[in-house]
Amino acid sequence: MPGTWMLGIETSCDETSAAVVRDGSYVASNVVASQIAIHRQYGGVVPEVASRQHLEKITYVVEKAINDAGLGFHDLDGVAVTVGPGLIGALLVGVAAAKAYSYALKRPLVPIHHLEAHLYANFLAHPELTPPLVCLVVSGGHTSLIFLKNHLEYEILGATRDDAAGEAFDKIARVLGLPYPGGPALEELARQGDPQAVHFPRAWLGKNSLEFSFSGLKTAVLNYLKSNSEEENKHLLPDVAASFQAAVVEVLVEKTILAAKLGGVRDVCLAGGVAANSTLRELFKQKAGQEGLKFYFPEKKLCTDNAAMVACAGYYHYLAGDFASLNQEACANYPLIVSKS
Cβ neighbours of residue 61 under 8 Å, at least 6 residues apart? Predict the structure, then answer.
């Protein structure tokens, strides 16, 4: 078949996913086996359980992805896989599977960083998008501002000093007694509250700072709840959720807009699991429009962990000849190469 067909594999946390993407833009299939129901009983992801679930599902999701795409294995041109960062046991499953397919099919193995995969989800959703651009990647494990000068040329403009935004969402959701996953549950509760009811602090960290910090905000929420009686808090929870969410979202948007203005960039993107938050999207649309910037974001199914974004990033590495040997290892703290030049 014409075109370059990439198989993507993603197992960095608790989603077992495989996808087939042509030319970095057409998603022929994107299969995700979620573990949410399993981990909900523990209140969060249990790494050992996640690894075992990946082992059970990996072959199934890959075969389904190939079948859904209407291809055979030998129609593939390369195998892209998330090698880090993430849970090491989970990553090992995906990397081992990718090596096996690469060896058996005699196709290049393409290692992918989890953050760049999230960033490249925007190119799946918006094929017309071109660098340069600024992208906020915000999830349970990451809050990073990335400047994409050209394809595969990255500069990290700022990152969190402590909790990732998604991690803060999950922790506060747990404090508020909400079920796992906490982020979507907190967003749902916040819809019933007043975002101006409680003024929680915003960590700006100095003039023109592009770094983030959410630990102080988290502490402020805890102290506020402790200052009220248990009965009072029952009625205040929607307002607390809405006010907390407003504090997080405001900082994320303002710093991303600032990064674009400082860099003279007209396009801003949003990516990662927290990018599915509708309040965050709406504020981005509003602020970007006021500043004359173009704002891009993926559809929600491409925000959470999935293999289509891995295959998309893999396509650009494939064109650049960035292949790995079968000695490629998974790495829980895999660094993003900040420049290809």
Answer: 16, 17, 18, 31, 32, 33, 307
Tokens of 199: 């003024």
How does pLDDT run across 198-214, given as a tens digit for each residue? 999 999 999 999 999 99
Count CA atoms within 13 Å of residue 315 on its CB side: 22
What the block records as the tokens of 167 is 């991690």
What token pair was written down for 288? Answer: 């970007």
Q: Would you call 224 exposed, middle or buried from its count of C-beta atoms within 10 A (0-12, 13-18, 19+)?
A: middle
CB 305 within 8 A of CB 10: yes
- Burial state string for 88-124 with b = 16 or more CB within 10 A and e = fewer than 16: bbbbbbbbbbbbebbeebebbbbbbbbbbbbbbbbbb
284 — phi, psi (to 5°)? -60, -45
- Specify the pTM: 0.95
How many angstroms separate the CA atoms of 244 and 41, rounded?
A: 25
Question: Distance between CA atoms of 211 and 161, rounded to whole angstroms?
Answer: 7
Q: What does the alpha-carbon distance between residue 266 and residue 321 come to, in Å, rounded to a whole number?
A: 30
For the domain covering 131-298, report its CATH number.
3.30.420.40
Positive or negative, the CA dihedral 311, 312, 318, 320 is negative
- Do residues 4 and 20 touch, judged by C-beta distance below 8 A? no
Which parts of the chain register pLDDT below 70?
339-341
- The answer to whether 243 and 194 have CB atoms below 8 angstroms apart is yes
Q: Where in the chain is the domain with CATH 3.30.420.40?
A: 5-119+302-320, 131-298
Which contiguous run of DSSP H or E holds residue 61? helix 47-69
pLDDT given at position 230:
86
Q: What stretch of H or E contains 137?
A: strand 133-138
User: Can you read off the two tokens belonging to residue 49?
Assistant: 């359980």
Q: What HEC string does 245-314 produce?
A: HHHHHHHHHHHHHHHHHHHCCCEEEEECHHHHCHHHHHHHHHHHHHCCCEEECCCHHHCCCCHHHHHHHH
Is the omega angle on the peptide bond into residue 298 within 30 degrees of 0, that is, cis? no
CATH number of 5-119+302-320: 3.30.420.40
**Minimal CA–CA distance to 168: which of 143, 147, 191?**
143
